[in-house]
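Project standup — Tuesday

K.O.: blocked on the structure for the chain from last sprint. Re-posting the sequence here as requested.
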Amino acid sequence: LSLPDALPICPEFVTNILHLVRNSERLLIRAIQEDSFSMALQALLLHPNVASVEHARNFLRHYFDSDRRKG
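H.V.: unblocked you, prediction finished:
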């Protein structure tokens, strides 16, 4: 398989945002596996689409207090 001579270059700021999102997702997965509210909060605060600390805390309180987790 050969690649075209001229591939579009992703701007550095886009690459940085993608890395930030991916790192946030990895940390969030780890937080859920370890049942860690504080780690999950850190993960959400890294994510560029999370509006505020208050939104992140409210979301996590809903998740961590949920009966669905107690299965």
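K.O.: great, moving the ticket to review. The first helix runs from residue 12 to 34. The helical segments are 12-34, 37-46, 53-64.
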